[in-house]
Design a protein that fits this description.
This protein is mainly α and about 450 residues long. The protein folds into 3 domains: about 10-70, no CATH class; about 75-350, Fic-like fold (Orthogonal Bundle), CATH 1.10.3290; about 380-450, Winged helix-like DNA-binding domain superfamily/Winged helix DNA-binding domain (Arc Repressor Mutant, subunit A), CATH 1.10.10.10. About 55% of the residues lie in helices and about 5% in strands. Helix 8 (about 160-175) runs antiparallel to helix 9, helix 9 packs across helix 12 (about 280-295) and helix 17 (about 400-405) packs across helix 18 (about 410-420).
Amino acid sequence: MKLPTKPPNYNIVIKNIVESGNVDLLLKYNLNTTKQYYHWDKLKHLSPPDNLTNKEWWACIKYYRHSAAKIVPGLVDNFTKDFSFVLTDSISRDLHWLDMYAAGSIQSSSLITTPETRNTYLVKSLIEEAISSSQLEGASTTLPIAKEMIRQNRKPRDINEQMIFNNYHAMEFIREIKNESLTPEIILELHKLLTYKTLEKESKAGKYRTKNDKDDNVVVIDPNDGIILHIPSKASEVPQRVKALCHFANQVSDDEFVHPVIKSIVLHFMLAYIHPFTDGNGRTARALFYWSMANKKYWLMEFVSISRVIKQAPTQYGKAFLHTESDENDLTYFIIHQLKTIKQAIGDLFKYLDKKTKQLQDSEKLLEESKTFKNKLNFRQLTLLRHALKHPRFAYKISEHMNSHGIVYQTARNDLIQMAERFNLLIKVKAGKSFLFLSPDDLHERLKQG
């Protein structure tokens, strides 16, 4: 990944503008003169207005950004300089949208608000985030194999499956502790869960980098060309920095209010910036974002995967970090990127739920024609039936059905036994000490006959 060009010293340019008597320029070119929040790396290639040079245009924009910037309380970089962000109109609009759709109940699908169906989609989202977050860090297991492993609750076969397995259980852990205050111990436990049996030295799981060994020389490099992208905080500073991060996460102050979504995004950035561990920092940072959103009651985020969206354009994700660090710790770049990511993830969820609602309606319409099955199959059975119609001869296990819907073993067993023995929609066969339930080739005909 190419490092962004370091922005010019705009203070010198501003001084020249003032001395030339063109002070009004500094008031003319504010945030509203460009629809995008450009970094110098992009702005230097654009055509500036009013015969300005690109450096003059940049200086005017930076002058306004400085005047509108909000300092992030209690967090500084490796040189004790503040981090800040600008609350642009586009950010305000996105935050308002998220307040309505991710924390409120507007247009929330019944599939994720009804207790009978909620767990099914929650399990799906946990699996999706676990897989995508791990793949961002190099895990190469295919989606079907990873889903099979989690739903069957079988042991991972290699390090790639182990990463995904760990991520899944870390997301479950976040759900358990979402109402607790953040502590360094929680972050360490989260890292331990995420990196179990995946590190070169297993003893490093759940442990900070130390100043007594090569851990203190950790740098973030581009795996493709070896370019150093980021130099993390010194190992000796990590414990104190993590404590400050926890204080920021838990702090509630009328004097220094930071919107909960922005706070969650800043936690994501700062954990990656501090880089407290030898490995697994990215996974831990994204998991920390989920904890923060859940802690602030943005309940819909439990059903979306930001890593799946990030994985579609990982370079843009990396650039958002680099633009912030190269332009005076301006977190606006990272905030804008993450808000776009979150909105896309939620939009994808709504599309998926619309699709599933239509599929359920189609299945139910087919069942309406049957006096035997009408109003007698529950949501879980309807979901399995829809899958079975598309996958003849597919074998279903009680344990998989249990894990897919977040239900107890007896409920899962009753679902499948009923479909096989009462409704004749599945074929029950003996497999060792347990049973398999097969989708018959003539399932569609069985439904019609019923």
